[in-house]
Amino acid sequence: MVPNDVLVVGQHGPDCFRFMSQVSAVCVRLVPPGTTVHVTNAGLYPQGFYKVTHQFVSSSVTTTVMWIRGLNIVLALVVFGLAFLVSGRRTRAALALTLGLAMCTPIGLFFIPSTNPTAWSTIGIGSLWVFVVAYMDADVAWRRWTAAGGGFLAWLIAVMARADAPVYAALTVLAAAAIGTERGRLITTKLIMPGALVALSIGAFFAGSGGSVASKGVAPTAAGATQGAPDFILQQIAYNTAHPLHLLLSNIPGLWEYERKLFYTGPLGWGDTPMSEQGFIIPVVLLVIMVTAILRYRGWHRTAYVCLFLAALVIPLAVLQQSHLSVHSGYVQPRYLYPLMLGLLGLGLSAHIGSGRFDRIARNRWVLVLTWAVISGFASLALHIELRRYVSGIDVSDLNLDSHREWWWVDWPLSPMGVWVIGTVAMAVSVGLLLRIALVNARSVEPVLDAYDHSRESSAA
């Protein structure tokens, strides 16, 4: 619940610029005090995220949004900073690369500081695998207890935000615990923390709306919102209900669309702000990293990683099938899978740290410079497109964001161009720092035959 004068609607309804990327945010106006606003509450989200962020709501829209964004940024810095502190060198290098390659993407930069629950789910699941591996690796008490505390914090943040987080948490914990266990040295007491997290995840799943989503899907017919659903969606649901095999076979090739849109090319906002298609090479590289990690792992490490990989394929297919929707319907968005993919990528990168091939790449200065330039460049381009979309609409192609300005924050000291320049510099510095952290830590990991032979990994800070 928020004050009436914070709620906003468009001149033609609450979605005056949704799905219309040529329309700026100027169409939004304040709701007069006392106005009744009808909203849809299907009960598909946990209440924790909203109860916490509600504490920052004031009568000023700008102040409210900035406080919530600031909260999420601080939360991300604290959680990932703690993950860096407790992790060993291999895991720390993999985490730095995951943050640099996957979280400094348009979707990561958009959602982590956003007012959307996906922010907390991304922070929680995106760091959970690190805490579990660090807990299994820990050789001193303070590191083990800190990793356990960080793991429970990351889990809590995630499950307070989204109904699918318990599923992602359980899968990530199981895979990370198996991969973090040294071959031939399974210590029962080390299973306490991951076992507790899995048990809590199962309880949270059935206590929340996750069970309902699993049984009914996320289609408008399941959420009770058929009145506002487009006719073509209702027709698609009716057709797919009668032809389930056709739906499954048509959705399998569409999984590549999810992976492509997750990393650099996917639309932002309401799915109505297209990103540059020139970044397609980055999803390809990340997919190769994850697939080849299967070859790097051995024994139960490989089994655990393959199971997590298959889960990332099966979950969206199952939800689409249960919802009677296609990949292109827009109801099951790629961002829903983003938190799980971060864990999959992080564990995949862990398999490559210490290999001879990775060492050769890491020592090639031009490869590092090119990687930094590509990631920073596409992040800057994505920020420019996103700002332009709301300032004037993407039908304006001027590089200067201050030109043709139709909307901007009231009394905000920085102009759109100022925000873009500062954001571009900040992202370039952040990506460079993350790559540097990854390089320094990766060089301290001895080359090994088994991708995860802990006995030859230094866990020193």
Report on this structure.
It comes from Nocardioides baekrokdamisoli. This is Glycosyltransferase RgtA/B/C/D-like domain-containing protein. InterPro entries: DUF2142_membrane (IPR018674). This protein has a two-stranded antiparallel ribbon with strand order 1-2. Helix content is 61%, strand content 1%. The chain has 19 helices and two strands. The N terminus and C terminus are likely disordered. Helix 5 runs antiparallel to helix 6. The radius of gyration is 22 Å and the shape is globular. The protein starts with 7 loop residues before the first strand and ends in a 19-residue tail after the last helix. The longest helix has 27 residues. It has one domain. The protein is mainly α.
Secondary-structure blueprint of this entry?
Layout: E1 8-10, E2 28-30, H1 48-54, H2 61-86, H3 89-103, H4 106-111, H5 118-137, H6 141-159, H7 165-179, H8 192-207, H9 210-216, H10 220-223, H11 231-242, H12 244-251, H13 255-265, H14 281-296, H15 299-323, H16 338-352, H17 356-362, H18 365-391, H19 416-442
Antiparallel strand pairs: 1-2
Helix pairs in contact: 2-5, 2-6, 3-16, 3-19, 5-6, 5-7, 5-16, 6-8, 7-8, 7-15, 7-16, 9-15, 13-14, 14-15, 14-16, 15-16, 18-19
